[in-house]
Write a structure and sequence with these properties.
heterodimer; A: two-stranded antiparallel ribbon; elongated; B: mainly alpha; two-stranded antiparallel sheet
């Protein structure tokens, strides 16, 4: 670029910045949801492990509002796992655990890719901010941007 | 230096913003449908990996109701087809709105006699 920056250049930078910013915010929300899913998988795996080899475990089942009723787990060796789309399947707890671990690993990979994308976006936003600062300094004082 | 924006340009700007909002709403709807479609495809794939005698349940509100594997698979397939159709419809609507946006952008450019940067978010 030579000479003073034009309004078009400034507008282009602002539009790019806003676009990247919106993308980054959306990505952050998705990453948070994936992180929650990973934690849920871990909790389910921990529960399966805790119930393993326990016969007729006496437990408390939540009924909402911080209230519980006594219940006996009659089949702790069987687990019902969600397949998505409002469908669940019953299987051995070992098989369910395997699926949950697999699911967690897949989610962790996706999260890693998203982290990279987020890093790239942060770099681009930083580059735009640097460019905008340069252009602001190159612009005569009497020409306000806003 | 301040210049008054002609009413025609103001009207075109308002239209452009309206079209942009419609495009954003469509994009959001499409993302939801695509996500649900992916989930259904994954559920169908998981279902096909299960043993023939596997016990299947359907979520009905907070309850799980025992269901027949074949009928659940049929339901999921139908759901998938409906969502594919919905996704295609949204895609066509998106294309139309994109064209309208470009058209309005061109009109606005010629009206103000310059080339404004930026695109549809």
């Amino acid at each position: 670029m030579s000479g003073q920056p034009t309004n078009d250049e400034i507008q282009r930078l602002v539009a790019q910045h806003d676009e990247h910013q919106a993308h980054a915010e959306m990505l952050a929300g998705q990453m948070e949801a994936i992180q929650m899913s990973i934690i849920e998988c871990e909790r389910a795996v921990n529960a399966i492990d805790a119930l393993k080899d326990e016969d007729e475990v006496a437990s408390l089942v939540p009924i909402g509002a911080g209230s519980f009723v006594h219940a006996k787990m009659v089949k702790p060796e069987r687990t019902i796992i969600s397949l998505g789309s409002n469908v669940s399947a019953e299987m051995s707890s070992d098989a369910a655990k395997e699926r949950l671990v697999d699911r967690k690993e897949k989610l962790a990979k996706i999260l890693e890719q998203m982290n990279q994308t987020m890093g790239d976006l942060a770099k681009r936003i930083q580059a735009i901010q640097t460019e905008a600062t340069k252009q602001a300094q190159a612009r005569p004082v009497d020409q306000a941007y806003i | 230096m301040t210049t008054e924006i002609p009413p025609q340009v103001q009207h075109q700007l308002a239209q452009l913003q309206q079209v942009q909002q419609q495009a954003q709403a469509l994009a959001s709807q499409k993302a939801q449908v695509t996500s649900a479609l992916n989930e259904t495809e994954m559920a169908l794939e998981e279902l096909s990996k299960l043993e023939d005698d596997a016990v299947i349940y359907k979520n009905v509100g907070q309850l799980l109701i025992k269901g027949e594997r074949d009928s659940v698979a049929t339901e999921l397939t139908e759901k998938k087809e409906t969502m594919e159709l919905r996704a295609r419809t949204l895609e066509r609507q998106e294309e139309r709105i994109q064209k309208r946006f470009q058209q309005l952008q061109e009109q606005l450019r010629s009206a103000i006699g310059g080339g404004a940067g930026g695109g549809m978010a």
